[in-house]
């Protein structure tokens, strides 16, 4: 802070020279500058210069004014450990409407044909496993566990006796049975024949009882499985044959018009002395020469037989015949 005083220029220079060091000095406690003067006051009779006393009194006033107007420096506040709350100014900007992007044009999708899935060929192990499963299913459906028949002929009775005596050795039993059978007396033959007849009647009764334990549809499916097993055995070079199961409940397939004509011509007696091939050739030629009116009689018989088959099949097996299923599907 500087103070302008109405002093003459020579007097000011003298004052500055004498009190250059003691006029002003910084004080650490007050940011303002304090002005001190060691000159005597104007009323002091010891003072040599009366102007200097006036200047000193003015400096004293200025110092007291500066100390009175200056505010004491405030002490720093003690730290309480709390973080001062940050002033949050609400800076809410007005939402500017977004510009709508133009809709993209949908790309034309070309319909691609789905590629057919190519099945990988089965390995040898998988094929063998599949064949074994098919064979096992066929054998299970074929109902191969028939009742064991008793010996129904005199030779079989003699062979069975010799097998028991020989301890199960087939070759030795067959040789002994052949020799014994050739040397049988008439009484022994009669006894063996009677026993064989009784065994045959027992076998028939046991066989019919076994068939009756299965439904007609199961017997029908078993015969289909047996035919397939026979074909497979023949293809493998084996002579194994599986006979069809005889069931009186089975439904006979219908005959066509030509079958009725063939039966009528064969039973007439006009073709005696001919072989089966010759009869078939001659009857076929006669069938071709028949008119539509003459064939109508045999066609009507075939239609009646077909109706009979449809009715019996549905009654016995409980389902429609296979050919009617195919037509309806």
From TrEMBL:
One matching Pfam family: HMG_box_2
Superkingdom as given in the UniProt entry: Eukaryota
Domain named HMG box: residues: 251-317
Keyword Nucleus: yes
Single GO MF descriptor: DNA binding
Keyword terms of this UniProt record: DNA-binding, Nucleus
Region (Disordered) residue spans: 66-120
Protein name, UniProt field: HMG box domain-containing protein
Organism in which the protein naturally occurs: Cladophialophora immunda
Source organism phylogeny: Eukaryota, Fungi, Dikarya, Ascomycota, Pezizomycotina
């Amino acid at each position: 802070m500087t103070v302008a005083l109405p002093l003459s220029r020579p007097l000011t220079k003298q004052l500055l020279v004498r009190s250059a060091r003691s006029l002003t000095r910084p004080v650490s406690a007050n940011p303002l500058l304090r002005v001190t003067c060691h000159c005597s006051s104007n009323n002091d009779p010891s003072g040599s210069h009366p102007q200097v006393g006036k200047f000193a009194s003015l400096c004293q006033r200025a110092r007291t004014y500066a100390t009175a107007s200056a505010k004491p420096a405030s002490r720093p506040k003690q730290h309480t450990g709390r973080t001062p709350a940050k002033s949050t100014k609400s800076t809410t900007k007005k939402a500017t409407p977004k510009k709508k992007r133009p809709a993209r044009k949908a790309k034309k999708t070309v319909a691609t044909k789905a590629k057919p899935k190519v099945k990988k060929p089965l390995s040898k192990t998988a094929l063998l496993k599949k064949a074994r499963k098919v064979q096992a299913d066929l054998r299970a459906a074929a109902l191969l566990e028939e009742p064991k028949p008793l010996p129904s002929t005199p030779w079989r009775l003699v062979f069975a006796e010799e097998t028991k005596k020989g301890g199960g050795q087939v070759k030795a039993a067959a040789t002994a049975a052949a020799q014994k059978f050739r040397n049988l007396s008439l009484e022994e033959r009669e006894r063996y024949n009677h026993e064989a007849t009784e065994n045959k009647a027992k076998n028939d009764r046991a066989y019919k009882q076994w068939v009756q334990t299965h439904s007609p549809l199961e017997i029908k499916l078993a015969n289909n499985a047996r035919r397939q097993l026979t074909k497979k055995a023949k293809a493998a070079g084996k002579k194994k044959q599986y006979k069809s199961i005889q069931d009186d409940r089975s439904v006979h397939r219908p005959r066509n018009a030509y079958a009725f004509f063939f039966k009528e011509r064969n039973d007439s007696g006009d073709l005696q002395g001919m072989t089966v091939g010759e009869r078939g050739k001659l009857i076929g030629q006669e069938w071709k020469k028949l008119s539509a009116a003459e064939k109508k009689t045999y066609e009507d018989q075939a239609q009646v037989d077909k109706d009979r088959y449809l009715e019996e099949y549905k009654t016995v097996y409980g389902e429609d015949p296979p050919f009617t299923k195919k037509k309806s599907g």
